Amino acid sequence: MLRSSKRIAHNHTKKVLSHILKNMRTSPAKTPLQLERHLKGVASHRRISILILVSKNEGITLDQIATRLECNLKTTAEHTRRLVLAGLVNKKYFGRNVGHSLSPYGKVFYNFLRTF
After folding, report:
1. CB 72 within 8 A of CB 66
2. Tens-digit pLDDT profile for the chain (116 aa)?
3. Helix, coil or strand: residue 105
4. What's 31's DSSP letter?
5. Which fold has domain 31-115?
6. Where are the domains of the chain?
7. What is the distance between the alpha carbons of residues 51 and 39, in angstroms, rounded to a whole number?
8. Nearest-CA neighbor of 112 among 57, 35, 28, 31?
9. Which of 13, 26, 38, 83 is 20 to 30 A from residue 63's alpha carbon, by CA?
10. Cα 112–chain centre separation
């Protein structure tokens, strides 16, 4: 029974990765440097938490992210800045507030994390 569960999970993971690769092939190929930038963007448990939170709450502000994750505002700001630099999160200004949403690549990474 356990082996069949692992086999199902493995087959599902293969399908997801195949789908991601298929979609990436239709767009211009990423250079190793570009791939490194995206991967470093999610190279922290805190950034992964922020990515998941932003995916579920489009337009969420930095204060809201810090409050929901129970994290220091400066720490949250730095991790969010790195996600923006990695091209995974977009910022949109609403007067004095800044809303955050996933970029197209951020959505791909979120889907990958969700199924991994």
Report:
1. yes
2. 445 666 666 666 667 667 666 665 555 677 888 888 878 888 899 999 999 999 999 999 999 999 999 999 999 999 999 999 999 999 999 898 999 999 999 999 899 888 87
3. helix
4. P
5. Arc Repressor Mutant, subunit A (1.10.10)
6. 31-115
7. 13
8. 35
9. 38
10. 9
Q: Residue 68 carries which side chain, given as an amino acid letter? A: R
AA identity, residue 17:
L
Residue with token string 């400066």: 74
Task: Report the amino acid identity of residue 12.
Answer: H
Residue type at position 3: R
Which of left, alpha, beta for 53 (phi over 0: left; psi -120 to 50: alpha)? alpha
Q: In the chain, helix, strand, coil percent, each to 5?
A: 70, 10, 20
Tokens of 100: 């955050």
From start to end of 1-116, where are the E strands?
89-94, 97-102
DSSP for 55-78?
HHSTTB-HHHHHHHHT--HHHHHH
